[in-house]
Design brief:
The complex is a heterodimer. By secondary structure, chain A is an alpha/beta fold. In chain A, a hairpin with a 2-residue loop joins strand 12 (234-240) and strand 13. In chain A, helix 9 runs parallel beside helix 20 and helix 13 (428-439) packs parallel to helix 16 (487-500). Chain B is an alpha/beta fold. Chain B is 30% helix and 18% strand. Chain B contains 6 helices and 7 strands, in the order E-H-H-E-E-E-H-E-H-H-E-E-H. Chain B is elongated, with a radius of gyration of 17 Å. The chains are: A alpha/beta, B alpha/beta. Bound molecules: iron/sulfur cluster (4 copies) and FE2/S2 (inorganic) cluster. One iron/sulfur cluster is lined by residues 96-98, 101, 103-104, 108, 110-111, 146, 202-203 of chain A.
């Protein structure tokens, strides 16, 4: 521990802390602009200058380490005039028209800093020279007129997302933020994750959809987990007057380090599909609105009139555990329906659970991906799926992370590393066999194995030769590898991982796939046509195969938030709440429970799947237990290492 | 004791700051008990007394030579000068004209407007003032009190004038320092 004093107050901080950490721990504050808790300190804006006794000049507290015996002052005439000077310079360099800036009042860190210094005007008048505005991106606008050159965006894009799209051109106060080699953002390598926009402290990066929809300080915030994939990234949903305004990564919760991908941040706010507003039933080949009770009675009558092998029920993994549990209990336990499946056919969670059942818990959490020296990625493309997990690897690929990739098609994650070996194909048994050869002492069959997979020995040696010496190897398992037929290879792989001390991370499809597997859903079956077909789509999509199975069924019940080709052919349509209109839990890939809080009220007539299951159970004289937590937690503990 | 004299005028602004001034409603009666309101753009007397006033208030940025004259005259005739609103304090909305330049802006307004026919022309009467690089009032004359805001609230304006009327320099801070 390091002891120092701040404004006369003694304070103790851990070794490695900065003066800024000490100042804040002592209960004081200094304004900052370029500093961000999730980024490596950069020390460019100098707004955080403090006086350290004995030092010749003022010190930037966000980068200078705290040392024993330091005597720090934050509010002296010297620091105050330095801050005012710095702010004067910043305002004189660009065009800060707060009156029509979107980021005003409480949202803008720069403006707040000026208020805190009691500035009522700019001591130095700017030249009012125009700077480049880039409005080519569909999700956000870059306005260099408001940029303070703090590089938080550049650092977020490079250090955290590993995408390195943003950079600066020109020098000094004339620096201009650009994408790639100065191409419009909308045509750049940008993946529209929006993390730069969230990290920008000013109105220089503006979210198109929330712009001018009200100050962020006037919005209502609730915590949410993203259910677009099973990483379950923690996020904050911001609303106003019962309308979604924007979504940000949660700075305090989750393994996602406040990062989101497009699907978690922008897609839900951009969603403008047509909502279903009332229950409907097909009469004379037309869907006609009816009351809820009538609709549920019609369903109940059909369910009772059919044998269990004539009923199938299918639900979206975007639904919360509460709904999945009730749905399974109702259809599988009470009705013993022929098929109760989770849409998406992603078997990863099921295969992994089976394997853990045989050999004990073996999975690691996502932190394994954040610090590794060799990553073996099997059967997934982390640039397309589970993107935030992909960021963790991409950002290390810029340094010297080695990657071995096997997938049926070429992956984009491979493009991020020059230190990679990539196999395109599906012979995973041969792949695991090869890995085993590299993990062992000597394998006389190695040349043959290499040739079989089409690898050049030197290149393979350069990557996989490291496997034995590697300090922090990680194996990432995706959908394609974790199919039931690959179970033996999976088994071997985990044994190998245990031998060489590699961590194994499995990525389990969409939303609540993992929970679905643990609740007993069939993840390996394709829906088939049955006399009664219940499809709980919610706000999700389903594949063509599911649509055909629905079309071939006799009595088609579709519970959905949006009008689609599924509701069009249904016999009964039940309007369903969307993710933001209901509360519920999600089990992430790494086995953590996240809570999606309700952010907005649904219009009258929309009901959550859970409520409908309860009503249907009621009509059949059944009561649903609603207990799932203990069983789920126990099963997770048997799969994921604690 | 004689009441301090107050005069106001507007330069390149939208009149919104003066509207906000009026927005103090019945407190304006209270204010007239404290100060002697002399010239304003919305009353009969248009120019500050030659004999001088105690407080001068200017709304709007400097966009032409006429604005400069008005600002200089007000400065000469008042003891304390208040820059009222974002345009007076920062240049504000009119300062956007600096981006294309005055010439382009005039061309767009008088010649290229969708509703203008071939006879459109930029007014060139010699009596008219000449456009200048837009800037805050403080770039032309010394300003003593800055009251930013678009527009500053009636409360903030009342506070500033009430303080000045009672011989104190206002401290524009907290909710009154709102750049918007
Ligand atoms: S970025 Fe901040 S300081 Fe600049 S104009 Fe916008 S609100 Fe004002
Ligand atoms: S949206 Fe994401 S990828 Fe695009 S520039 Fe910003 S941080 Fe980089
Ligand atoms: S765009 Fe925003 S985050 Fe990026 S350098 Fe400019 S002010 Fe900083
Ligand atoms: S990585 Fe997955 S959970 Fe995270 S924001 Fe993207 S889709 Fe959502
Ligand atoms: S916050 Fe410390 S230098 Fe910018």
């Amino acid at each position: 521990m390091i002891q120092l004093t701040v404004n006369g107050q003694p304070v103790e901080v851990e070794a490695g802390s900065t003066i800024l950490d000490a100042v804040r721990k002592a209960g004081f504050n200094v304004p900052t602009l370029c500093y961000h808790p999730k980024l490596v300190p950069y020390g460019s804006c100098r707004l955080c200058l403090v006086e350290v006794e004995g030092a010749r000049t003022l010190q930037p507290s966000c980068v200078v380490p705290a040392t024993n015996g330091q005597v720090v002052h934050t509010d002296t005439d010297k620091t105050k005039s330095a801050r005012e000077f710095i702010l004067s310079m910043i305002f004189s360099e660009r065009n800060h028209f707060c009156m029509y800036c979107q980021d005003t009042d409480g949202d803008c860190v720069l403006q707040q800093a000026a208020y805190d210094e009691g500035m009522t005007h700019w001591p130095i008048t700017p030249a009012y020279k125009p700077f480049m505005v880039d409005a080519s991106h569909p999700d956000f606008i870059l306005d260099n007129n408001r940029c303070i050159l703090c590089r938080r965006c550049v650092r977020a894009c490079t250090e955290l997302v590993g995408n390195a799209t943003l950079g600066f051109e020109e020098r000094g106060s004339g620096s201009i933020l650009i994408a790639d080699n100065n191409v419009p953002l909308g045509e750049s390598t940008c993946i529209s994750c929006g993390n730069c926009e969230q990290f920008c402290p000013t109105g220089a990066l503006i979210d198109r959809r929330s712009a001018y929809m009200g100050r962020e300080t006037d919005l209502t915030y609730v915590n949410s987990v993203c259910m677009d994939c099973s990483l379950g990234c923690e996020r904050v949903v911001k609303t106003r007057d019962n309308r979604l305004v924007r979504i940000d990564g949660n700075l305090d919760l989750g393994s996602n380090e406040s990062l989101l991908c497009y699907d978690g941040r922008y897609k839900p706010v951009a969603d403008n599909r047509k909502r279903i507003t009332s229950p409907m039933v097909r009469r004379n080949d037309q869907l006609e609105p009816i009351g809820w009770d009538e609709a549920l009675t019609a369903i109940s009558v059909q369910l009772k009139a059919h044998a269990s092998n004539e009923i199938s029920a299918h639900i979206s993994p975007r639904q919360p555990i509460e709904a999945l549990s009730a749905f399974h209990e109702f259809f599988a336990d009470h009705f013993n329906a022929e098929q109760v499946t989770l849409l998406g056919h992603d078997q990863t969670a099921l295969t992994s659970a089976k394997l853990a059942n045989e050999i004990g818990a073996f999975e690691s959490d996502l932190s394994a991906l954040k610090d590794c020296d060799i990553a073996i990625v099997l059967g997934t493309d982390l640039v397309k799926d589970h993107q935030v997990a992909g960021y963790f690897l991409k950002r290390q690929a810029m340094n010297d992370l080695k990657m071995f990739i096997a997938n049926s098609t070429r992956t984009s994650i491979g493009d991020w590393s020059s230190n990679k070996l990539e196999y395109v194909g599906t012979d995973y048994a041969a792949v695991v066999d090869l890995l085993q050869s590299y993990a062992q002492a000597e394998d006389p069959d190695l040349p043959a194995k290499l040739q079989n997979l089409g690898f050049k020995p030197e290149r393979a040696e350069r990557i996989l030769g490291q496997l034995k010496e590697s300090q922090k190897p990680v194996i990432v398992i995706g959908k394609e590898f974790a199919k039931a037929e690959n179970l033996p290879a999976f088994h071997k792989l985990v044994q190998l991982a245990r031998e060489i001390g590699a961590k194994v991370v499995t990525l389990k499809g969409k939303g609540n796939n993992f929970a679905g597997a643990l609740l007993g859903y069939k993840l390996d079956a394709q829906p088939m046509s049955t006399p009664v077909f219940y499809l709980a789509l919610g706000d999700g999509h389903a594949c063509d195969h599911t649509r055909d199975a629905l079309a071939g069924s006799e009595f088609k019940i579709v519970q959905a938030s949006y009008a689609s080709e599924f509701t069009e052919i249904a016999d009964v349509v039940l309007p369903c709440t969307i993710w933001a209109e209901q509360e519920g839990h999600y089990l992430t890939s790494e086995g953590k429970l996240g809570l999606n809080q309700q952010a907005i009220q649904a219009a009258d007539g929309n009901l959550p799947v859970l409520d409908v299951m309860k009503s249907l159970a009621n009509k059949s004289g059944l009561a649903l237990s609603e207990a799932w937590r203990a069983a789920v937690e126990e099963k997770v503990a048997a799969i994921v290492l604690s | 004791m004689t009441k301090p004299k107050v005069a106001s005028d507007w330069l390149a602004g939208c009149a919104g700051c003066h509207m906000s001034f009026l927005d103090m409603d019945e407190r304006i009666i209270e204010l007239t008990k404290l100060v002697d309101l002399r010239s304003t753009p919305i009353t009969d007397l248009k120019e500050p007394d030659e004999s001088g006033v105690d407080v001068g208030i200017l709304e709007g940025g400097i966009t032409n030579t006429y604005n400069e004259e008005v600002a200089i005259k007000m400065r000469e005739r008042c003891k304390i000068l208040v820059a009222l609103g974002d345009c007076a304090v920062f240049g504000g909305v009119p300062a956007m004209r600096n981006f294309p330049g005055a010439e382009e802006a005039l061309k767009r307004a008088y010649i290229e407007t969708e509703s203008t026919d071939e006879s459109g022309m930029i007014p060139n009467d010699p009596e008219l003032s000449t456009p200048v690089h837009v800037r805050p009032v403080s770039d032309v004359v010394k300003v003593d009190v800055f009251l930013p805001g678009c527009a500053p609230s009636a409360d903030a304006i009342f506070y500033v004038l009430a303080e000045l009327a009672q011989g104190r320099m206002p401290n524009v801070d907290g909710e009154f320092n709102d750049w918007h």
